Protein backbone atom coordinates (compact mmCIF):
# COMPACT_ATOMS: atom_id res chain seq x y z
CA UNK A 1 0.00 0.00 0.00
CA UNK A 2 2.86 2.38 0.84
CA UNK A 3 4.41 1.78 -2.60
CA UNK A 4 1.26 2.54 -4.55
CA UNK A 5 0.20 5.47 -2.37
CA UNK A 6 3.53 7.19 -3.02
CA UNK A 7 3.77 6.06 -6.65
CA UNK A 8 0.35 7.42 -7.63
CA UNK A 9 0.07 10.59 -5.51
CA UNK A 10 1.44 12.57 -8.44
CA UNK A 11 -1.74 11.67 -10.39
CA UNK A 12 -3.83 13.40 -7.74
CA UNK A 13 -1.52 16.41 -7.35
CA UNK A 14 -1.94 17.42 -11.01
CA UNK A 15 -5.59 18.32 -10.33
CA UNK A 16 -4.36 21.13 -8.02
CA UNK A 17 -2.65 23.30 -10.69
CA UNK A 18 0.56 21.34 -10.09
CA UNK A 19 1.67 21.77 -13.70
CA UNK A 20 1.06 25.51 -13.91
CA UNK A 21 2.69 26.08 -10.51
CA UNK A 22 5.89 24.51 -11.86
CA UNK A 23 5.64 26.16 -15.28
CA UNK A 24 4.98 22.85 -17.04
CA UNK A 25 2.43 21.46 -19.48
CA UNK A 26 1.09 17.94 -19.95
CA UNK A 27 3.91 16.93 -22.28
CA UNK A 28 6.41 17.85 -19.55
CA UNK A 29 4.44 15.72 -17.12
CA UNK A 30 4.57 12.84 -19.62
CA UNK A 31 8.34 13.23 -19.85
CA UNK A 32 8.57 13.16 -16.06
CA UNK A 33 6.62 9.91 -16.01
CA UNK A 34 9.04 8.45 -18.55
CA UNK A 35 11.94 9.43 -16.28
CA UNK A 36 10.25 7.78 -13.30
CA UNK A 37 9.36 4.58 -15.15
CA UNK A 38 12.78 4.29 -16.79
CA UNK A 39 14.44 4.60 -13.38
CA UNK A 40 11.90 2.17 -11.89
CA UNK A 41 12.69 -0.28 -14.67
CA UNK A 42 16.46 -0.08 -14.32
CA UNK A 43 16.64 -0.14 -10.52
CA UNK A 44 18.60 -3.07 -9.16
CA UNK A 45 20.00 -1.13 -6.20
CA UNK A 46 18.97 -1.66 -2.54
CA UNK A 47 15.82 0.32 -1.81
CA UNK A 48 13.20 0.66 0.87
CA UNK A 49 10.14 2.31 2.27
CA UNK A 50 12.15 4.98 4.10
CA UNK A 51 13.94 6.03 0.89
CA UNK A 52 10.87 6.46 -1.28
CA UNK A 53 8.97 8.23 1.51
CA UNK A 54 11.73 10.83 1.95
CA UNK A 55 11.92 11.40 -1.80
CA UNK A 56 8.14 11.83 -1.97
CA UNK A 57 8.30 14.41 0.82
CA UNK A 58 11.01 16.32 -1.06
CA UNK A 59 8.50 16.91 -3.87
CA UNK A 60 6.77 19.38 -1.56
CA UNK A 61 9.69 21.75 -2.23
CA UNK A 62 9.52 21.55 -6.03
CA UNK A 63 9.77 24.85 -7.85
CA UNK A 64 10.59 23.98 -11.46
CA UNK A 65 10.66 21.36 -14.19
CA UNK A 66 14.24 20.22 -13.47
CA UNK A 67 13.40 19.41 -9.86
CA UNK A 68 10.35 17.47 -11.01
CA UNK A 69 12.45 15.32 -13.35
CA UNK A 70 15.10 14.69 -10.68
CA UNK A 71 12.59 13.57 -8.04
CA UNK A 72 10.84 11.35 -10.59
CA UNK A 73 14.14 9.61 -11.34
CA UNK A 74 15.02 9.18 -7.67
CA UNK A 75 11.55 7.86 -6.87
CA UNK A 76 11.80 5.30 -9.65
CA UNK A 77 15.21 4.13 -8.42
CA UNK A 78 13.95 3.82 -4.85
CA UNK A 79 10.83 1.83 -5.75
CA UNK A 80 12.14 -0.23 -8.65
CA UNK A 81 12.24 -3.97 -8.07
CA UNK A 82 10.01 -3.96 -5.00
CA UNK A 83 7.03 -5.62 -6.70
CA UNK A 84 8.98 -8.46 -8.41
CA UNK A 85 10.68 -9.20 -5.09
CA UNK A 86 7.37 -9.49 -3.25
CA UNK A 87 5.87 -11.66 -5.96
CA UNK A 88 8.92 -13.94 -6.02
CA UNK A 89 8.78 -14.25 -2.23
CA UNK A 90 5.12 -15.30 -2.40
CA UNK A 91 5.93 -17.84 -5.12
CA UNK A 92 8.22 -19.68 -2.67
CA UNK A 93 5.23 -20.42 -0.43
CA UNK A 94 2.38 -21.09 -2.84
CA UNK A 95 1.72 -23.17 -5.96
CA UNK A 96 0.91 -21.46 -9.25
CA UNK A 97 -2.86 -21.67 -8.73
CA UNK A 98 -2.61 -20.60 -5.10
CA UNK A 99 -0.38 -17.69 -6.11
CA UNK A 100 -3.09 -16.26 -8.37
CA UNK A 101 -5.52 -15.88 -5.47
CA UNK A 102 -2.94 -14.34 -3.14
CA UNK A 103 -1.86 -11.87 -5.80
CA UNK A 104 -5.47 -10.85 -6.42
CA UNK A 105 -5.68 -9.81 -2.76
CA UNK A 106 -2.29 -8.08 -3.05
CA UNK A 107 -3.42 -5.97 -6.01
CA UNK A 108 -6.82 -5.32 -4.46
CA UNK A 109 -5.02 -3.70 -1.52
CA UNK A 110 -3.05 -1.59 -4.01
CA UNK A 111 -6.35 -0.53 -5.55
CA UNK A 112 -7.79 0.35 -2.15
CA UNK A 113 -4.69 2.45 -1.47
CA UNK A 114 -5.77 4.67 -4.37
CA UNK A 115 -9.11 5.32 -2.68
CA UNK A 116 -7.30 6.23 0.54
CA UNK A 117 -4.89 8.41 -1.42
CA UNK A 118 -7.74 10.19 -3.18
CA UNK A 119 -9.49 10.95 0.10
CA UNK A 120 -6.22 12.24 1.56
CA UNK A 121 -5.66 14.37 -1.53
CA UNK A 122 -9.18 15.79 -1.31
CA UNK A 123 -8.37 17.05 2.18
CA UNK A 124 -4.81 18.23 1.74
CA UNK A 125 -5.39 19.98 -1.57
CA UNK A 126 -8.12 22.07 0.05
CA UNK A 127 -5.32 23.61 2.14
CA UNK A 128 -4.17 25.60 -0.94
CA UNK A 129 -3.36 29.12 0.23
CA UNK A 130 -2.62 28.18 3.83
CA UNK A 131 0.70 29.85 4.73
CA UNK A 132 0.92 30.85 1.08
CA UNK A 133 1.51 27.24 -0.08
CA UNK A 134 -0.16 25.11 -2.77
CA UNK A 135 -2.31 22.22 -1.60
CA UNK A 136 -0.23 19.64 -3.46
CA UNK A 137 2.78 20.59 -1.30
CA UNK A 138 0.87 19.58 1.83
CA UNK A 139 -0.17 16.36 0.08
CA UNK A 140 3.41 15.25 -0.56
CA UNK A 141 4.66 16.27 2.89
CA UNK A 142 1.97 14.62 4.99
CA UNK A 143 1.83 11.41 2.95
CA UNK A 144 5.53 10.97 3.77
CA UNK A 145 4.66 10.97 7.48
CA UNK A 146 2.10 8.22 6.89
CA UNK A 147 4.38 6.04 4.75
CA UNK A 148 7.79 6.73 6.26
CA UNK A 149 7.61 4.16 9.06
CA UNK A 150 9.52 1.03 8.03
CA UNK A 151 12.82 -0.81 7.79
CA UNK A 152 15.13 -0.79 4.84
CA UNK A 153 14.35 -3.61 2.44
CA UNK A 154 17.64 -4.53 0.82
CA UNK A 155 17.87 -7.10 -1.90
CA UNK A 156 20.40 -8.71 -4.16
CA UNK A 157 20.31 -7.76 -7.82
CA UNK A 158 20.07 -10.21 -10.66
CA UNK A 159 23.32 -11.07 -12.39
CA UNK A 160 23.69 -10.24 -16.11
CA UNK A 161 24.38 -13.94 -16.82
CA UNK A 162 21.08 -14.95 -15.23
CA UNK A 163 19.23 -12.39 -17.34
CA UNK A 164 20.95 -13.58 -20.54
CA UNK A 165 20.03 -17.20 -19.77
CA UNK A 166 16.43 -16.21 -19.11
CA UNK A 167 16.28 -14.32 -22.39
CA UNK A 168 17.13 -17.63 -24.06
CA UNK A 169 13.87 -19.12 -22.74
CA UNK A 170 12.02 -18.33 -25.96
CA UNK A 171 8.84 -20.04 -24.79
CA UNK A 172 8.26 -17.29 -22.22
CA UNK A 173 8.62 -14.46 -24.72
CA UNK A 174 4.95 -14.58 -25.80
CA UNK A 175 3.85 -13.65 -22.27
CA UNK A 176 6.48 -10.89 -22.08
CA UNK A 177 5.17 -9.49 -25.37
CA UNK A 178 1.65 -9.66 -24.03
CA UNK A 179 2.66 -7.82 -20.85
CA UNK A 180 4.11 -5.08 -23.04
CA UNK A 181 0.78 -4.06 -24.61
CA UNK A 182 -2.14 -5.49 -22.62
CA UNK A 183 -2.29 -2.75 -19.96
CA UNK A 184 -1.74 0.28 -22.21
CA UNK A 185 -5.39 0.76 -23.35
CA UNK A 186 -6.67 1.78 -19.91
CA UNK A 187 -3.48 3.31 -18.44
CA UNK A 188 -3.67 6.90 -19.81
CA UNK A 189 -7.32 7.42 -18.77
CA UNK A 190 -6.49 6.01 -15.33
CA UNK A 191 -3.37 8.16 -14.90
CA UNK A 192 -5.01 11.37 -16.06
CA UNK A 193 -8.52 10.82 -14.66
CA UNK A 194 -8.36 13.68 -12.13
CA UNK A 195 -6.68 16.00 -14.64
CA UNK A 196 -9.25 15.18 -17.35
CA UNK A 197 -12.08 15.97 -14.94
CA UNK A 198 -10.37 19.25 -14.02
CA UNK A 199 -10.00 20.13 -17.72
CA UNK A 200 -13.72 19.45 -18.20
CA UNK A 201 -14.55 22.12 -15.65
CA UNK A 202 -14.85 20.29 -12.34
CA UNK A 203 -13.26 21.80 -9.24
CA UNK A 204 -10.07 20.29 -7.81
CA UNK A 205 -12.00 18.70 -4.95
CA UNK A 206 -14.66 17.21 -7.22
CA UNK A 207 -12.05 16.02 -9.74
CA UNK A 208 -10.35 13.95 -7.04
CA UNK A 209 -13.52 12.67 -5.36
CA UNK A 210 -15.12 11.69 -8.67
CA UNK A 211 -12.18 9.35 -9.30
CA UNK A 212 -13.09 7.15 -6.30
CA UNK A 213 -15.77 5.00 -8.05
CA UNK A 214 -13.20 3.95 -10.65
CA UNK A 215 -10.69 2.97 -7.97
CA UNK A 216 -13.33 1.10 -5.98
CA UNK A 217 -14.65 -0.97 -8.88
CA UNK A 218 -11.12 -1.61 -10.18
CA UNK A 219 -10.20 -3.12 -6.80
CA UNK A 220 -13.53 -4.96 -6.54
CA UNK A 221 -13.13 -6.63 -9.94
CA UNK A 222 -9.66 -8.04 -9.27
CA UNK A 223 -10.46 -10.89 -6.86
CA UNK A 224 -13.42 -12.54 -8.70
CA UNK A 225 -11.65 -12.16 -12.05
CA UNK A 226 -8.55 -13.94 -10.76
CA UNK A 227 -10.71 -16.55 -9.01
CA UNK A 228 -12.49 -17.24 -12.30
CA UNK A 229 -9.15 -17.75 -14.05
CA UNK A 230 -8.10 -20.33 -11.45
CA UNK A 231 -11.52 -22.01 -11.50
CA UNK A 232 -11.55 -22.41 -15.27
CA UNK A 233 -7.79 -22.98 -15.51
CA UNK A 234 -7.85 -20.35 -18.26
CA UNK A 235 -5.55 -17.38 -18.73
CA UNK A 236 -5.15 -16.13 -22.29
CA UNK A 237 -8.85 -16.03 -23.21
CA UNK A 238 -9.82 -14.32 -19.95
CA UNK A 239 -6.97 -11.83 -20.37
CA UNK A 240 -8.39 -10.92 -23.78
CA UNK A 241 -11.71 -10.04 -22.12
CA UNK A 242 -9.98 -7.16 -20.31
CA UNK A 243 -9.44 -5.47 -23.64
CA UNK A 244 -12.89 -6.40 -24.90
CA UNK A 245 -14.05 -4.40 -21.87
CA UNK A 246 -11.71 -1.56 -22.85
CA UNK A 247 -13.07 -1.47 -26.40
CA UNK A 248 -16.66 -1.37 -25.15
CA UNK A 249 -15.99 2.04 -23.58
CA UNK A 250 -13.12 3.44 -25.66
CA UNK A 251 -15.14 3.34 -28.89
CA UNK A 252 -18.11 5.39 -27.58
CA UNK A 253 -15.65 7.70 -25.80
CA UNK A 254 -13.92 8.32 -29.14
CA UNK A 255 -17.23 8.86 -30.96
CA UNK A 256 -18.72 11.14 -28.30
CA UNK A 257 -19.39 14.67 -29.48
CA UNK A 258 -16.76 17.28 -28.62
CA UNK A 259 -18.81 19.32 -26.19
CA UNK A 260 -18.19 20.71 -22.73
CA UNK A 261 -21.89 20.88 -21.86
CA UNK A 262 -22.99 19.50 -18.51
CA UNK A 263 -24.81 16.64 -20.25
CA UNK A 264 -21.85 15.47 -22.32
CA UNK A 265 -19.41 15.90 -19.45
CA UNK A 266 -21.38 13.44 -17.33
CA UNK A 267 -21.60 10.94 -20.21
CA UNK A 268 -17.84 11.28 -20.73
CA UNK A 269 -17.27 10.84 -17.00
CA UNK A 270 -19.39 7.66 -16.91
CA UNK A 271 -17.51 6.15 -19.86
CA UNK A 272 -14.10 6.91 -18.33
CA UNK A 273 -15.15 5.49 -14.94
CA UNK A 274 -16.40 2.30 -16.60
CA UNK A 275 -13.24 2.06 -18.72
CA UNK A 276 -10.88 2.44 -15.77
CA UNK A 277 -12.86 -0.08 -13.70
CA UNK A 278 -11.53 -2.78 -16.05
CA UNK A 279 -11.15 -6.33 -14.65
CA UNK A 280 -7.43 -6.54 -13.87
CA UNK A 281 -5.66 -9.56 -15.35
CA UNK A 282 -2.20 -8.74 -13.97
CA UNK A 283 -2.38 -11.13 -10.93
CA UNK A 284 -3.09 -14.23 -12.99
CA UNK A 285 -0.64 -13.19 -15.71
CA UNK A 286 2.06 -13.16 -13.03
CA UNK A 287 0.91 -16.61 -11.94
CA UNK A 288 1.04 -17.66 -15.59
CA UNK A 289 4.68 -16.59 -15.89
CA UNK A 290 5.51 -18.31 -12.60
CA UNK A 291 3.90 -21.61 -13.64
CA UNK A 292 5.52 -21.69 -17.07
CA UNK A 293 8.95 -20.89 -15.58
CA UNK A 294 8.88 -24.27 -13.77
CA UNK A 295 12.02 -23.70 -11.66
CA UNK A 296 12.97 -21.25 -8.89
CA UNK A 297 16.01 -19.97 -10.82
CA UNK A 298 13.97 -19.37 -13.96
CA UNK A 299 11.08 -17.91 -11.99
CA UNK A 300 13.19 -15.20 -10.38
CA UNK A 301 14.46 -13.87 -13.69
CA UNK A 302 11.28 -14.47 -15.69
CA UNK A 303 9.25 -12.45 -13.19
CA UNK A 304 11.86 -9.69 -13.48
CA UNK A 305 11.65 -9.76 -17.30
CA UNK A 306 7.86 -9.82 -17.26
CA UNK A 307 7.85 -6.80 -14.94
CA UNK A 308 10.30 -5.09 -17.31
CA UNK A 309 7.92 -5.63 -20.23
CA UNK A 310 5.00 -4.20 -18.24
CA UNK A 311 7.07 -1.13 -17.25
CA UNK A 312 8.15 -0.57 -20.86
CA UNK A 313 4.45 -0.66 -21.75
CA UNK A 314 3.84 1.93 -19.03
CA UNK A 315 6.52 4.14 -20.59
CA UNK A 316 4.83 3.81 -23.99
CA UNK A 317 1.46 4.69 -22.45
CA UNK A 318 2.79 8.09 -21.34
CA UNK A 319 3.09 9.15 -24.99
CA UNK A 320 -0.60 8.59 -25.83
CA UNK A 321 -2.36 11.57 -24.19
CA UNK A 322 -0.51 14.74 -25.23
CA UNK A 323 -0.93 18.42 -24.46
CA UNK A 324 -2.17 19.22 -27.98
CA UNK A 325 -4.90 16.57 -27.78
CA UNK A 326 -6.63 17.75 -24.58
CA UNK A 327 -9.29 17.78 -23.20
CA UNK A 328 -11.04 15.13 -25.32
CA UNK A 329 -7.96 13.18 -26.45
CA UNK A 330 -9.52 11.94 -29.69
CA UNK A 331 -6.19 10.95 -31.27
CA UNK A 332 -5.07 9.26 -28.07
CA UNK A 333 -8.31 7.29 -27.73
CA UNK A 334 -8.07 6.13 -31.33
CA UNK A 335 -4.56 4.83 -30.61
CA UNK A 336 -5.88 3.05 -27.49
CA UNK A 337 -8.66 1.41 -29.52
CA UNK A 338 -6.05 0.06 -31.94
CA UNK A 339 -3.87 -1.25 -29.11
CA UNK A 340 -6.84 -2.91 -27.40
CA UNK A 341 -7.71 -4.72 -30.65
CA UNK A 342 -4.08 -5.80 -31.09
CA UNK A 343 -4.00 -7.08 -27.51
CA UNK A 344 -7.10 -9.22 -28.05
CA UNK A 345 -5.62 -10.85 -31.14
CA UNK A 346 -2.29 -11.30 -29.37
CA UNK A 347 -4.01 -13.15 -26.51
CA UNK A 348 -5.43 -15.69 -28.91
CA UNK A 349 -2.13 -16.05 -30.77
CA UNK A 350 -0.28 -16.68 -27.49
CA UNK A 351 -2.79 -19.37 -26.57
CA UNK A 352 -2.40 -20.96 -30.01
CA UNK A 353 1.40 -20.86 -29.62
CA UNK A 354 1.33 -22.76 -26.32
CA UNK A 355 -1.16 -25.29 -27.66
CA UNK A 356 1.17 -26.03 -30.57
CA UNK A 357 4.26 -26.17 -28.35
CA UNK A 358 2.55 -28.65 -26.03
CA UNK A 359 1.65 -30.81 -29.02
CA UNK A 360 5.27 -30.76 -30.20
CA UNK A 361 6.61 -31.69 -26.77
CA UNK A 362 3.95 -34.37 -26.33
CA UNK A 363 4.87 -35.99 -29.66
CA UNK A 364 8.56 -36.01 -28.75
CA UNK A 365 7.89 -37.35 -25.26
CA UNK A 366 5.47 -40.04 -26.41
CA UNK A 367 8.00 -41.08 -29.04
CA UNK A 368 10.36 -42.22 -26.27
CA UNK A 369 10.10 -45.67 -24.74
CA UNK A 370 9.39 -46.04 -21.01
CA UNK A 371 13.09 -46.74 -20.39
CA UNK A 372 14.14 -43.70 -22.41
CA UNK A 373 11.69 -41.51 -20.50
CA UNK A 374 13.10 -42.73 -17.19
CA UNK A 375 16.66 -42.22 -18.39
CA UNK A 376 15.76 -38.69 -19.52
CA UNK A 377 14.32 -37.81 -16.12
CA UNK A 378 17.43 -39.10 -14.35
CA UNK A 379 20.10 -37.62 -16.60
CA UNK A 380 18.75 -34.61 -18.50
CA UNK A 381 20.40 -31.24 -18.05
CA UNK A 382 17.32 -29.47 -19.38
CA UNK A 383 15.79 -27.13 -16.83
CA UNK A 384 12.41 -25.50 -16.36
CA UNK A 385 10.29 -25.07 -19.46
CA UNK A 386 12.94 -26.73 -21.66
CA UNK A 387 12.21 -30.15 -20.15
CA UNK A 388 10.31 -32.48 -22.47
CA UNK A 389 8.09 -33.74 -19.63
CA UNK A 390 6.94 -30.24 -18.64
CA UNK A 391 4.02 -28.63 -20.48
CA UNK A 392 2.80 -25.07 -20.67
CA UNK A 393 -0.35 -23.66 -19.12
CA UNK A 394 -2.34 -21.14 -21.14
TrEMBL record:
Keywords: Membrane, Transmembrane, Transmembrane helix, Transport. It is a multi-pass membrane protein. Pfam families: MFS_1 (PF07690). The chain crosses the membrane at residues 34-55, 105-127, 172-189, 237-255, 267-289, 301-322, 334-354. Signal peptide: none annotated. GO terms for molecular function: transmembrane transporter activity. InterPro entries: MFS (IPR011701), MFS_trans_sf (IPR036259). GO terms for cellular component: membrane. The keyword DNA damage does not apply. It comes from the Eukaryota. It is found in: Membrane. This is Uncharacterized protein.
Amino acid sequence: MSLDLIRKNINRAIADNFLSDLGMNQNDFNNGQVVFLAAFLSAELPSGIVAWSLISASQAALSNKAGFFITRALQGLAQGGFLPDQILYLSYWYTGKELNTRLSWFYTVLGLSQIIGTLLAAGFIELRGLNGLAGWRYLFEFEELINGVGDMNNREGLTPLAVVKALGEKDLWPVYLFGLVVFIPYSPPQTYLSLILKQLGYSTLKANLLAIPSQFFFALNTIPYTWLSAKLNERSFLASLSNVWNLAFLIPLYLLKKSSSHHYNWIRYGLIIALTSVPYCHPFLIGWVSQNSQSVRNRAVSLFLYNMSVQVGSILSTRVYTNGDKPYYRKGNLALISLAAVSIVLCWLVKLYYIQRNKQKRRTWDGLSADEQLQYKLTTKDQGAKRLDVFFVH
